[in-house]
Amino acid sequence: MYKLVFHVIGFGLLALQISAIPTHSQNDILKNRESLSTLSAASSSTAVAKIQLGKLAEIALGVTNENIIHKTAASKHQKCTKDKLRVRRNWRSFSVPQRKKYINSVLCLQGKPARTPAHLAPGAKTRYDDYVATHINQTLGIHFTGTFLAWHRYFIYEFEQALRNECGYVGDYPYWDWGADADAMEKSPVFDGTDTSMSGNGAYIPNEADIILSLGDYAPVILPPGSGGGCVTSGPFKNYKLHLGPAALSLPGGNMSIAPNPLNYNPRCLKRDLTSALLQSYANYTSIVSLILNNQDVWDFEMVMQGVPGSGAIGVHGGGHYSMGGDPGRDVYVSPGDPAFWLHHGMIDRVWWIWQNLDLERRQNAISGTGTFLNEPPSANTTLETLVDIGYANGGPIAMKELMSTTAGPFCYVYV
Ligand SMILES: *[C@@H]1O[C@H](CO)[C@@H](O)[C@H](O)[C@H]1NC(C)=O
Ligand SMILES: *[C@@H]1O[C@H](CO)[C@@H](O)[C@H](O)[C@H]1NC(C)=O
Ligand SMILES: *[C@@H]1O[C@H](CO)[C@@H](O)[C@H](O)[C@H]1NC(C)=O
Ligand SMILES: *[C@@H]1O[C@H](CO)[C@@H](O)[C@H](O)[C@H]1NC(C)=O
Ligand SMILES: [Cu+2]
């Protein structure tokens, strides 16, 4: 059962320095309590769960806004003030010109030369590839680890920074609302293949076999194939070439494609195999709300999100990735090579942000896990002092503690 603790004003690290915690007005508390009575458990009706998710996001927004006001009042050094706050928005709420501006800035990054030295990643040719190369290089240290959520928060933020600083993007950062597309991905404004989408499905390949995900000694997870399978034929990214990988690409029928050096140059088309059934099973509104409401501990939250090994589930994170299908959609390492990656991880970050803001005091700085994939091989626990680094992509090494709040450290954004 979900219990909201009314520590709606949490200050993260700053809280420790502030003696008197401002109290909430009685009205706000009553209002929250009222809306929370309908939020004790995820509804099995996806239509109701959609409303629940909207309410949870509203609560998170309210908490973040108040937090900023109080932090600004408490310290002149507060960098993230209300006038600087950026909003991240649902791709569905972007106008046509806004969508085109975002897409053009991504295409721009794909046209700029890489920073990664060729001797480290000969296949990294563009600034976009710098992000793919770094993700490939670090995959086993950033998934099923203590850094998973924060690393990806930093990674997509620094991608946004590159769009802004190197490609003149001035719009909002978009997220993909999985629940809205769970019944028909092909109709999603993210994947409908129009020139305002992230390109559409791959060319249809008939009679594709199932995808078989194997992980150590756990029973394999069997996923159905989708409605495409081949190269993307429409939309802004139909001529885009993947340059890196494959590193661990699951193919229909159970084989895996692995390049001897996934950082070598291996130009090929972007493939998709849109699989609504996966989004429907793992990333519908009910699954999103129950992820948020049913997991009090950050370990449970991040594990359920990624799919608890052996449970047969792949979580909302895996649901989003594998529902894109194709190449690199089915390759954990190379996944940022699909331009929809950034919208998917926007939603991942949004869900974390909502979860954190429902109990900031306990969750703002909650970390669990180590520096290695499922702690294999065993490594030290991740802490607030652990450094994360996204290599040649952008930014510099940064401590976990800087990444835990979206309105502190380098960040100043909320989700609407
Ligand atoms: C991969 O990681 C290693 C170890 O952190 C680093 O030295 C190297 O520069 C990275 N390579 C790329 C391509 O980022
Ligand atoms: C899997 O790979 C083997 C060896 O390359 C090949 O013989 C077989 O046909 C492949 N299976 C499928 C389903 O692609
Ligand atoms: C929604 O997701 C949950 C858990 O991921 C699943 O059990 C349920 O069957 C899904 N609902 C629908 C309508 O597919
Ligand atoms: C690492 O974290 C685990 C789980 O929270 C805990 O049981 C263990 O004591 C920690 N190890 C160290 C060395 O702090
Ligand atoms: Cu990742």
Give the CA-CA distance, first to last residue. Answer: 26 Å
Could you state the order of secondary-structure elements as H and E? HHEHHHEHEEEEEEEEHHHHHHHEEE
Low-confidence stretches: 1-27
Portion in beta strands: 5-15%
Query: Would you report the number of β strands?
Result: 13
Q: Which molecules other than protein and nucleic acid are bound?
A: 2-acetamido-2-deoxy-beta-D-glucopyranose, copper (II) ion
Strand line-up across the major sheet: 2-1-13
Rg is 21 Å
Helix content: 25-40%
GO molecular function, one term: oxidoreductase activity
Domain Tyrosinase copper-binding: 338-349
Protein name: Di-copper centre-containing protein
Organism: Penicillium angulare
What does this protein look like?
Strand 8 and strand 9 form a beta hairpin. Residues 1-27 have low confidence and may be disordered. The protein is mostly helical and 416 residues long. The protein has 13 helices and 13 strands. The strands form six sheets. A three-stranded parallel β-sheet has the order 2-1-13. A two-stranded antiparallel sheet has the order 3-6. The protein has a two-stranded antiparallel ribbon with strand order 4-5. The structure holds 2-acetamido-2-deoxy-beta-D-glucopyranose (4 copies) and copper (II) ion. This is Di-copper centre-containing protein. Keywords: Metal-binding, Signal.
